[in-house]
User: Fold this.
Amino acid sequence: MNTIYLTTSEEDIRRAAEIIKNGGLVAFPTETVYGLGGNALDPEASRRIYAAKGRPSDNPLIVHISEFSQAEPLVKKAGGLQYPEGSRIPEAAHRLAEAIWPGPMTMVLPKAEGVPDATTGGLDTVALRLPANDTARRLIELSGLPIAAPSANLSGRPSPTSWEHVREDLNGRIDAIIKGEPCIGGIESTVVDMTGELPVILRPGLITPERISSVLGVPCSYDPAILGKPEDGLVPKAPGMKYRHYAPKAEMRLFRLKDEASADGHKRLLSAMEAEAEEYRRLGRDVEILCYDSEREAAEKLFSDLRRLDQENADMIFAAALDQSSSIGFSVMNRMLKSAGYNIVEI
Ligand code: AMP
Ligand code: MG
Assistant:
């Protein structure tokens, strides 16, 4: 297949919207990572998304909308929740959407009949997001459809934070790539389950449990499965979380302090990584070090750094662990641990 490359001009977004309306696939920028979009209401388009990514078909897709009102026909009322008059969307979801959308948060709600099983991986819930990127919203608006979009990478590879990353993985496998700006968020959206009485985070991201809790005035917890390792045997409610993800080709190790609170911690981590790297370099191995100054910087750069080091054929990547007592640090560490296959060196 010949992949066409489009700009973010109105004319080009219109062409992209036509492709989506005709059942095709378009990669587009969002504020988190690039998405691979298709008509969420067309099971055939969803099947094409899975095929293009090589993604297991039980891993559901997030449905992107450009206006809150677009969510109504996609969800169904469930027992035990409060609803505003005339809406099928629970009260709490209205409040979160009002406070946080457009933004990097996905809400899981009971799905309406019309949403194909192929889009939700056979689940009876649907994941919805209203992205903060203008090109993404314009594309959804011009197509007149909700757009199903997972991250636009080959399954298992680090998520793409630039259109060049998408080209690396999906050139020749999809209809079009919109050459938008690099993503500012850098990690995928927070997924929050809104089907129960209290909100539960299924995938951590830049929208923190503290933020959700302060908007709703109730506690917001993490799904226990994301707090442990995969081999702990807990089944995550977000099926995608069980797969190996974000893996660079190089062997990756995460260096972590036994005593996180120590004042010169950052320095000690760095010198421990340098010392060990030196030993491997003497054996002729190309060892690269990743050490970020802040959690936000880590979120923005992690995936693109992993892809860059793959291109440079690094043999090993040593990365400094982040402070997990901050929610953003915890979210980025969730990705780093998966990238490193839980390969941790404690010093
Ligand atoms: P990606 O599209 O690659 O960002 O992955 C989407 C993530 O959202 C995956 O981890 C999914 O498991 C999760 N997700 C999507 N839909 C649902 C749903 N209905 N229930 C729970 N998790 C979902
Ligand atoms: Mg993904």
The chain has a mean pLDDT of 94. Residues 66 and 140 are 6 Å apart (CA to CA).
